[in-house]
Specification:
213 residues; mainly alpha; 77% helix; Gly_transporter; transmembrane helix
Length: 213
């Protein structure tokens, strides 16, 4: 029961972030709904395709799509409020990311993937929806930009799951991996932890500042 709640919470938070971005970009209602769906279930669909699950589980469960559309509807109706509530939405997104990382790895293990593939597929589950969202919106994907760490917590959560699952119960791996990934993401947001970037002079040369008026 708790696993289903976390799953829907994660899908809803991810879908809401996609819908809010669609609102900010001026998309029509179909575009906003599409952004919500690809963000909410995109990672799961890609994971299932790589695992040769046909059709993908996220497309077979009508509940997942319904949660995405409900999140899109609420985000559209209350767009001004949702945009102001940036911190709570970010926290929900962190919870969803942590759960997607471990549940994706768990599904991969259940379908016979090795430990290395399972860890990678867990990370894919957590990141792919966000990457698709940003690419569709023509933004630099947040997981690849110089913002607070996103990919590292997802990778760590999936690795922790794989290690614990090898020695103990699966639910312990899901719980611990999700918790660690979520807390690390929240800590990165709070303390602005970031990975090193390339040499600053090369970045400035590639993206020179715009001259003033």
């Amino acid at each position: 029961m708790i696993q289903h709640i976390l799953n829907y919470l994660g899908i809803g938070a991810a879908a809401a972030s996609g819908a809010v971005l669609g609102v900010r970009k001026g998309f029509d209602l179909f575009g906003i709904a599409a952004m919500a769906v690809v963000t909410g279930v995109g990672g799961g669909v890609l994971r299932d395709v790589l695992l040769a699950i046909d059709p993908p589980q996220s497309l077979q469960r009508w509940q997942d799509i319904t949660v995405c559309l409900a999140a899109a509807a609420l985000a559209t109706l209350f767009a001004r409020t949702v945009i102001r509530l940036h911190q709570p939405v970010t926290m929900l997104d962190a919870v969803g990311m942590g759960f997607f990382a471990t549940s994706g790895a768990a599904l991969a293990v259940d379908h016979g993937a090795g430990w290395f593939a399972a860890a990678l597929l867990g990370m894919v589950s957590a990141l792919a929806g966000t990457i698709i969202r940003d690419v569709v919106a023509r933004d630099v994907p947040v997981v690849m930009g110089p913002d607070d760490m996103y990919a590292v917590p997802a990778m760590l959560g999936s690795v922790i799951y794989v290690v614990i699952d090898y020695y103990g119960p699966q639910w312990v791996g899901v719980a611990v991996g999700s918790l660690v990934a979520t807390l690390l993401r929240l800590a990165a947001i709070t303390f602005h932890w970031r990975l090193p970037t390339g040499p600053r002079e090369l970045i400035m040369r590639a993206h020179p500042p715009h001259p003033g008026p």
